[in-house]
Amino acid sequence: AQKITQTQPGMFVQEKEAVTLDCTYDTSDPSYGLFWYKQPSSGEMIFLIYQGSYDQQNATEGRYSLNFQKARKSANLVISASQLGDSAMYFCAMREGRTTGKLIFGQGTTLQVKP
Amino acid sequence: DAGVTQSPTHLIKTRGQQVTLRCSPKSGHDTVSWYQQALGQGPQFIFQYYEEEERQRGNFPDRFSGHQFPNYSSELNVNALLLGDSALYLCASSSFGLAGEITDTQYFGPGTRLTVL
């Protein structure tokens, strides 16, 4: 069974509008971390935001926020005020437990920002 | 503050050959993980090195091996290359705390694009 599911292969958003990228996860470990990475066409994986399973508040980093719904096992990324430079592939990833460095990635969502 | 660096950027090999990819972690990090990303897919975990030992391994054959040096840099070696080994290879660095827990986010390098002909 897939542990990280991103159901949107591709998304379009108008410049300056907000967009939500979906991510659901599956784990039985009570301690885990959820990450979002951006991958432009150049290939580098750029860290955006992190949410720990015990964090009470939703994580925010500038224009990025993570809508963490633990009971539903979802960790959606919200990008506010989209910019043309946001066009890229976005990956949701999970780290199970606190002593492993292994990240499990979803299939990714391609976001295109329209001018 | 230097980020994660990888070399080379691109590499072309033929089937059956061997390849070595290199990675230097972000300043202050002591752990290196390697990932393989096939075209159109999410990265897949190959293995992780900490204190010069392989700490964890993903579902990859023994043709994939690695090494970590005392300065925390790392190499990924792939023997007997197959066409299916063509991919972007990503290195990520992080650090472990004294209690053995991950204390930092994994930061990735720019990757090495390997083409096997």
Description:
The complex is a heterodimer of chains A (115) and B (117). With 115 residues, chain A is mainly beta. In chain A, 0% of the residues lie in helices and 50% in strands. In chain A, strands 2, 5, 6, 10, 11 and 12 form a six-stranded mixed sheet that branches. In chain A, strand 7 and strand 8 form a beta hairpin. Chain B starts with a strand and ends with a strand. Chain B has no helices and eleven strands. Chain B is mostly beta strands and 117 residues long. The interface between A and B is medium-sized, with 25 and 29 residues.
SSE topology sketch:
The complex is a heterodimer of chains A (115) and B (117).
Chain A: E1 4-5, E2 10-14, E3 19-21, E4 24-25, E5 32-39, E6 46-52, E7 60-61, E8 64-69, E9 74-79, E10 88-96, E11 104-105, E12 109-114
Parallel strand pairs in A: 2-12
Antiparallel strand pairs in A: 1-4, 3-9, 5-6, 5-10, 7-8, 8-9, 10-11, 10-12
Chain B: E1 5-7, E2 10-13, E3 19-24, E4 31-37, E5 44-50, E6 53-57, E7 64-68, E8 74-78, E9 87-94, E10 107-108, E11 112-116
Parallel strand pairs in B: 2-11
Antiparallel strand pairs in B: 1-3, 3-8, 4-5, 4-9, 5-6, 7-8, 9-10, 9-11
Task: Jot down its keywords.
heterodimer, A: 115 residues, mainly beta, 6-stranded mixed sheet, 4-stranded antiparallel sheet, 0% helix, B: 117 residues, 7-stranded mixed sheet, 49% strand, globular
